[in-house]
Specification:
The structure is a single chain. With 548 residues, the chain is mainly beta. The protein has one domain (30-460, 472-540). The protein has helices at 56-59, 110-118, 332-337, 339-346, 470-474, and strands spanning 30-37, 67-73, 83-90, 121-129, 135-137, 145-148, 152-156, 167-168, 173-178, 184-188, 207-210, 220-222, 230-237, 243-249, 256-261, 280-287, 292-297, 309-311, 325-327, 354-359, 366-370, 392-398, 407-415, 433-434, 440-445, 451-455, 462-465, 468-469, 478-482, 488-494, 500-506, 512-518, 534-540. The strands form seven sheets. The chain has a nine-stranded antiparallel β-sheet with strand order 13-14-15-16-17-23-22-21-20, with helices on one face. Strands 8-7-12-11-10-9 form a six-stranded mixed β-sheet, with no helix packed on it. A hairpin with a 2-residue loop joins β27 (462-465) and β28. It starts with 29 loop residues before the first strand and ends in an 8-residue tail after the last strand. Bound molecules: MU-OXO-diiron and calcium ion (3 copies). MU-OXO-diiron binds at residues 91, 174, 189, 231, 250, 355. It comes from Sphingobium jiangsuense. This is dTDP-glucose 4,6-dehydratase. Pfam families: PhoX (PF05787). Residues 539-548 have a biased composition (Basic and acidic residues). InterPro entries: PhoX.
């Protein structure tokens, strides 16, 4: 079935021109302010960064680095449009404010390891809008808390017995998501602890559930959701409170997954959802050439997941097929710890680095960014470009718009690129209608159904045209809104030098947008100081909803 036509979601603002200014540019009539920088104190008892390297104890209380996915949570008794909790991922340390030189795992001192591990994980902060209209972290709030690469985590689900009893750390907290019962899901994008190689590798590469209100279980790695290079999680729920969680594996190449808990969640008894993510079925997506697709269950004993299974390997990266390898799936824990291999054995389609996934509020469509895959040598219908330098976006619809569906339909929503790259061949021009970009990554449909896209092209970044970088044509990484029906793309925000744009959260009235600026390299956010990853706040000067 063809996805139902959607209403037009055009947004009224004057698009920002592509630029290479060392600042955050927003449309006329909008303002942007920096709210939380790497090195700002989150927990009390430590001063914020002010030019000196931290002690391990200090770093453990600071905002970490490379801010990425985030979610906004309402607080009972507080006007949610004026204050709430923000849970923010820290993907990677901002080393320039942490230690002299760069980190080297082989030679790092114990203090340097502890400091580096402090700068990944997540932070929860209570934020509030002041009487001057400016948003700030409420210092001293009981909700302000860090969960780092040094903190302790438990494991739940079928593979938990094969993990350490108490796990040290989570890391590469890339993007994130939430559950309908108000917990935060933070995603580990690496499957080993490269900052502390003494830790067992199977302890990493999971979705971690954390309660920002600190009421439910301690932070838990949910093994039933699979182990891979997790990007984000987006859920779809139906009227019966059954839910599916969609996830991308940002690998070159990687598959797309969904996890369906075996029971409905409770909307009235929050505590009864405490182990919901430990029981259910993990599926991998298979994209057929005729625009149909199917979800294949990754269950030991089914779909080839048995002892002596033959993993075909990454068939897209070489015109000569790689040799198959033997993998023994003798338990569901084997399947979950080796999810990437299980997915290929079962027939999942290897995709061009699936990054963010987002679900429309009416469940009619799901979008996924395939950021790029310069090493693709064998095209497939859903990954149609070899040497895919600029990426694409796919839209798919579940059969009956149901989270429980085992079949879906799909289409290429757009191919990224720019006509300015035509000298490098047709693979590079793309078909974006309006403001162009490369390497879509962050992706979110807001509650009004408006699609937002954030980019992460490399800097300088090979455009595919000799002597022309990606930035030469599309400028710094930026954030766009794309009308789902007309596919008109409009540039809303442009980041400073060297950064990527990632992470989007908002207040319920959509008057306040929180956006993350990751790994800037110039003089932003404070001229004359070290550059720092930061969360910024975007508002309209007339106090109306963004893009109303
Ligand atoms: Fe952390 Fe795949 O971006
Ligand atoms: Ca990303
Ligand atoms: Ca990326
Ligand atoms: Ca990144």
């Amino acid at each position: 079935p063809t996805p139902a036509p959607e209403p037009s979601y055009s947004i009224g603002f004057t698009p920002v021109a592509a630029n290479r200014d060392d600042t955050v540019t927003v449309p006329a009539g909008y303002s942007v302010a920096v709210m939380l920088k790497a090195g700002d104190a989150i927990e009390s008892g430590a001063d914020s960064y002010s030019g000196s390297y931290p002690t391990p104890a200090q770093a453990e209380k600071w905002a970490g680095g490379n801010h990425d996915g985030m979610e906004y949570f309402e607080l009972e008794g507080t006007d949610p449009n004026a204050g709430g909790l923000l849970a923010i991922n820290f993907e990677f340390p901002d080393y320039n404010i942490l230690m002299a030189g760069s980190y080297n795992a082989a030679t790092a001192t114990a203090d340097q390891k502890a400091i580096a591990l402090s700068a990944v994980g997540i932070g929860v902060v209570e934020v509030a809008r002041g009487s001057d209209g400016k948003w700030a972290v409420k210092s001293g709030s009981k909700y302000n808390k860090r969960y780092t690469g040094n903190s302790s985590y438990r494991a739940g689900g079928p593979a938990s017995g094969l993990l350490s009893g108490t796990i040290k750390g989570m890391l590469n907290n890339c993007s994130s998501g939430r559950t309908p019962w108000g917990t935060y899901l933070t995603c580990e994008e690496t499957t080993d602890n490269y900052l502390d190689p003494t830790q067992p590798a199977r302890n990493y590469g999971w979705v971690v559930e954390i309660d920002p209100y600190q009421e439910l279980a301690e932070p838990t790695k949910r093994t039933a959701m699979g182990r891979f290079n997790h990007e984000n999680v987006a859920y779809m729920a139906n009227a019966d409170r059954r839910v599916a969680f969609y996830m991308g594996d940002d690998s070159t190449p990687g598959c797309i997954y969904k996890f369906i808990p075996s029971r409905a969640y409770s909307a009235t008894n929050r505590a009864s959802n405490i182990d919901l993510l430990d029981y259910g079925t993990l599926y991998v997506a298979k994209f057929n050439g005729d625009g149909t697709g199917e979800w294949i269950a990754l269950v030991q004993g089914q779909n080839g997941l048995v002892a002596g299974a033959q993993d075909p390997g990454n068939v897209s990266q070489s015109v000569t097929p790689p040799a198959a390898t033997t993998v023994n799936f003798t338990s569901q824990a084997d399947v979950l710890i080796n999810t990437q291999s299980a997915a290929r054995v079962a027939g999942g389609t290897v995709m061009d680095r699936p990054e963010w996934i987002t679900v429309a509020p009416d469940n009619s469509s799901i979008y996924v960014t395939l950021t790029n895959n310069s090493g693709r040598r064998v095209a497939s219908p859903s990954n149609p470009r070899t040497t895919n330098l600029h990426g694409h976006i796919i839209r798919f619809s579940e059969e009956g718009n149901s989270p429980l569906a085992t079949k879906f339909s799909w289409e290429i929503f757009l191919l990224a690129g720019d006509p300015g790259f035509s000298a490098g061949g047709a693979n590079l021009t793309g078909d974006i209608n309006g403001d162009t970009f490369s390497s879509p990554d962050g992706l979110r449909i807001d509650p009004k159904g408006r699609l937002w896209v954030q980019t992460d092209h490399s800097v300088p970044g090979s455009s595919g045209v000799s002597g022309v970088t990606i930035e030469d044509v599309v400028g710094h990484n930026a954030m766009f809104t794309i009308d789902q029906q007309t596919k008109q793309s409009k540039r809303f925000l442009v980041g400073p030098e060297g950064c990527e744009i990632t992470g989007l959260a908002y207040t319920p009235d959509l008057k306040t947008f929180f956006v993350n600026i990751q790994h800037p390299t110039g003089n932003w956010p404070i001229n004359g100081e070290e550059p720092r990853s930061s969360t910024v706040v975007v508002t309209r000067d007339d106090a109306q909803p963004v893009g109303n």
